[in-house]
Write a structure and sequence with these properties.
Elements (H helix, E strand, L loop, with lengths): L1 H19 L1 E4 L2 E4 L2 H34 L4 H24 L4 H25 L3 H16 L5 E2 L2 E2 L14
Helix pairs in contact: 1-2, 2-3, 2-4, 2-5, 3-4, 4-5
Length: 168
Amino acid sequence: MSVVFYLGSIILGNIMVHSLGLVTILGLTFPAGAIAVGLTFSARDFVQERYGKIGCWGWMLTASAITLAFNQQLALASFCAFFLAELSDWFIYTKTRGSFKKRLMLSNLISTPLDSLVFVLLAFGPAWPAIWGQTIIKMLSSILILPLFKNGKTYSLFFSFQRSKAVS
């Protein structure tokens, strides 16, 4: 189910940004899809736990292809940001040692701002309030998954696997 949540958050994020563009809520400006797409960073780490380093790449490529099905104007920005951010998230998560939570937080701390910078610059130009706003929204939404993780097991409707060593 982690793959369904991962791909679903990408689809929802693309629909939201395509339909609504930049939004401002409580003084914070960001692309509308940032909340849904922020979940992908943590969800991707769960996918890697389930399918391993190599298997995760298959799902990351599938997710990248999904972005091409939406608005052509946003497709390049989405693809570039997604590819660079997912590559950095995968690399940092893979190379970092320690608990799942530590690896997830560190990989998100780097990949989320990178994604925001690349996407907003390519899609909307140098809209710095939107870059900062998207980074904040994505970081907040990416850590929403953490309370669902306890003692090597996830608790939610979306994820239901026991953490084990993935075959690399």
